[in-house]
C-alpha cells in the first residue's frame, strides 16, 4: 500500500480496456482500494478480466458494480459516458466520487452532469497515457508512471473530492494538473487529436494508392511511414468518439495545420529551399524539450533500433 | 571478413554523416574493403571521424579520397551530388563503381550522369535506413540490418558492377532490391517524403500556436504528438534537398493526402461516425503487416514504455 494514501473502500471500474485494466492493476498492486468491482457489457471481456484477476468482483450490469462504491471511474469511450451515467445514477452512493478517463472533457461534463445525483462528486479526469493497444490484456502497472493526469473540476466541485482523486492518480505514478475543460480540449486537440487524425489519414492515403502497392508501402515503411502506423492502429471506437465530441477544437487545429501545409506546398513548388530549411530547423527544438521533460526516450528511433539478432560475422 | 564477399581494395566515402559513418563501421567490422578513405569538407567533422577511427585515411578534398578507389559512395545531401561528381570526375579510376545513398533517385541520376567518365560504373543506391540523428557520431553497425537497400541501375549499367554493389549491401546486412528510379521516387514519396513533410508541418503548427503554450505541448506530448517530433528532428539540409529534388512525386502524394484529409474533415463536421470508424479500422491492418514483415517492433509504444524507474511501493 502507498504510504501516504488512505485507500478507497470500493472502487468501481466501468469499462475494462487499456486504461481500466491499468487502473485495476495499479489499485491492486499499490493497495488503493479494498475492493475492486469491474463491469463491462461484453460477457467475453468480463470473463477475460476475471481470468486475468484484475478485480474482486465482476458485473455485467454497471449499476450493480457502483453500488456502495466510494470511487467510480468510467473507462468507456467518450460517446458512451452519458448513457452509462444515466444508467448508474440511482445506484451511486451519496458522498462518492464519480470520475472518468475520457480524452475530451467539455462533452463529458455536458453528458454526465445532468444525471449526477445531489451529493455525488463529479470530478472529470484525463490520464495522458496510453498505447496503441486496447482491451483488458493491454493494461500494465507502469502506464501512468511519470505521465500527466489532468483534472477538470467543474463549478462547485467538492474540493476534498478533487484532492482525493488527485492523490489517487499520484499514487498511480502520475503528475496531476488542474485545467478548465475547454482549455483541456484545445490543448489535446493539438497534442493528441490532430496527430491521430493525421496519422489515420496518411495511412489511409497509402492504403488507397494504386501506383504504389501495399506490399511496397510495408517493405519500405522504415523510411518514415511506420511511425504513423502506431497511432493509426489505435482503437477505432474510442477515436471516432473523440472526434465527434471535440469537433470544434479539432477542426480549428486542422485548419491551422492545413494552412501551414499549403505554405510548405508552395515553398516546394516554387523551390524555396531557405524557407523549407528554416521550418525544418525550428521543429528540432521541440523534440529536445520533450526529451528533457522526461516525456520521451532520448534513444534514436525510439530505441527500437536493436536488430532482431546480433551480427556474428 | 564476410565469408562470401571478396573485399574492395579502396573504398572512398564522400560525406561522413549518419549513413557514411555507418557504412564505414560496417566496412571495417566486416572487412569489406582493405582501405577506407573518408572525405568531408568540414575540417571539424573530418577530425571527429578520425577521432572515432572510422577510416584509414582522411581527406578534405574528395578528389584525393577517390583516387585509386574501387568503390566510391557519395553520402552527401541530394542537392550536392552533381557538384561533387563534377569535382571528383577526373580522379575516378576506370572500372571503379560510383554510387550514392540519396533518398531521391531520378534527380541523382540526372545530376551525376553528365559527369561520369567512360569506364566508371554509376550504380545509384538507397539504403532505406536511418534515425533522426545525424553526423559521424550517429553511425552504428546494425543500421542496415534487415533493412531494404534499393538499387536503381541506369540504362546500360554494368551488370557485374550492380552485382558487386548488391553483394556489398548484403554484407552490411541489407536485403537488396532493384527498381526503376522514377518508381523508387514515387514509392519513397509516400513511405518517406510525405511522412516527413507532415511531421515537420504538424510540429511547426504546434510551435506557432498562441492559444496553447509550447510548454503545454511538451508536457502533454505523450498523447500522440511526440511520435511526430522524431521525424521532425531529422537533418534539415538533407530534407530540404529531398523535397526540392523529388518535387513532383511529393506534391502528387501531398495532393492525395489533402483530398483524403478534406474528406475526414467533412465527416467530422457532419458528425458521420460510421465513416470515421470505417477509416480508422482499415488502417489498423497495415501496422500488423509491417510488424509481420519484420520492419517494426511489435512492442506497444515502440517499446519505449519502460518507465524511468521501477515502482517500489
TrEMBL record, chains A, B:
PROSITE patterns: PDH_ADH (PS51176). Keywords: Oxidoreductase. Residues 9-298 form the Prephenate/arogenate dehydrogenase domain. Transmembrane segments: none annotated. Gene3D superfamilies: 6-phosphogluconate dehydrogenase C-terminal like domain, NAD(P)-binding Rossmann-like Domain. InterPro entries: 6-PGluconate_DH-like_C_sf (IPR008927), NAD(P)-bd_dom_sf (IPR036291), PDH_C (IPR046825), PDH_N (IPR046826), Preph/Arog_dehydrog (IPR050812), Prephen_DH (IPR003099). This is Prephenate/arogenate dehydrogenase family protein.
